[in-house]
Amino acid sequence: MKHNVFRLMICSVLLVLAACAPQPVLTPASPLDSMSAEQPQPPRVEEITFQSGSFTLVGDLWLPEGTGPFPVILLNQGSGMDARANRGFSPMLERMLRAGYAVFSWDKPGVGKSTGQLSDARVLHERAQILLDAIEVMKARPDIDPHRIGLEGGSQAGYVMSLVLSMSQDIAFMICDSCPGMSGVDQSTYQAMALALCTGTPDGQADRRKELLAELDAARAYETYSQYAHYREVIEALFGTAAKVPKGYGFEVVPEEAWRLNDPEKETWWDPMEVIRHTTIPVLVLLGDQDRRMDPLQAAVAWRKALAEAGDPHSRVELFPNANHDLVVSETGCPDDDLRWLEEYVQARGYESLAAAMAAIQENPSLMSQFPFAPGYLDLIEEWLRDLRR
């Protein structure tokens, strides 16, 4: 759930007007004027302020064409300090509007116009309460259908949205981008290991790493505590095959009793898959197989198993090949590789640098429609949402 230099660069440079989670591809800088006539008409947008305990939240409600009441999607950021501008008018939001959905997004506490500070110890519960209060705001509006309120979010938002599912009967559907299928402490440990492997392989460790990765692949479908403990042991062993290991990476293994109780009050030890197994709503899960901020292959196994038990025929888990945590095209998911590729990508399209690309996007937001996300990612979101309305 941590941000590194590459993720911050992605957010600040190419997702200025979009979420720091899946959105799209840049075009040449030259034809800005000629493209202006093709830009879509801006949708209706209304700024909304609401209260959640000591937090004051300020956000935007985007309305599609037509006459309500509309189904609505509430956007939820990951762990970063994101303003609603980072989830502003973007290709993903445009697809949602085009499918006939209103979209509500707000500044996180302490960002933009929202006030307050989330606590590290209770961040999931505080964010869940904010989301619950946002749902109440939507239910009170005559232009919103209170029976068709959905959630979308990525990374840490997967825990927040799952927690809300256990607390509310008002959710009609959910879209999860790069949402872990394990506890937060396990996700953080995997992230530290996967990023450490990007630093290289010490002499004599290549074969050992290959063996351990094969063992990890077999361990991902753990169901018992002993199998879970083995999964964590393999991750610990993989640290030994990295050229550089981060200081203080020793995240605890969830104790057996806590693992069995799975109490959401123990936020970092809580596994949201127990909630998903009992949900009655359709869920769309979107993952990238080169994600190094979470274990995407374990997540695919866990989400598919949980949703199969839940039984909604509209639920779906899609694992996109060659895509990272942001569902951006990536060969390795390693930050340095992604940053190098992105620099080459924008330069090949006429930009001198990433900073120049950012300036072009600020001048012409429609350029975001060409950002290199996983092929089919945006299409799947729009098609899935349209199917829900049929």
Question: What can you see in these coordinates?
Answer:
The chain is globular and about 65 Å long. Helix 3 (91-98) packs parallel to helix 14 (377-389), helix 6 runs parallel beside helix 8 and helix 7 (206-219) packs antiparallel against helix 8 (225-239). With 390 residues, the protein is α/β, with parallel strands linked by helices. Helix 5 links the parallel strand 5 and strand 6. It folds into 2 domains: 5-181 and 272-389, 3-Layer(aba) Sandwich (Rossmann fold), CATH 3.40.50; 183-270, no CATH class. It has 14 helices and 8 strands. The chain has helices at 5-14, 32-35, 91-98, 123-139, 157-165, 184-197, 206-219, 225-239, 256-261, 273-277, 296-310, 335-347, 354-363, 377-389, and strands spanning 44-52, 55-63, 70-76, 102-106, 144-154, 171-177, 283-288, 316-320. Residues 1-38 have low confidence and may be disordered. Strands 1-2-4-3-5-6-7-8 form an 8-stranded mixed sheet, sandwiched between helices. Helix content is 39%, strand content 15%.
Brief description of this entry?
Helix content is 39%, strand content 15%. The chain has 390 residues and is an alpha/beta fold. It has 2 domains: 5-181 and 272-389, Rossmann fold (3-Layer(aba) Sandwich); 183-270, no CATH class.
List key phrases describing it:
390 residues, alpha/beta, Rossmann fold, 2 domains, 8-stranded mixed sheet
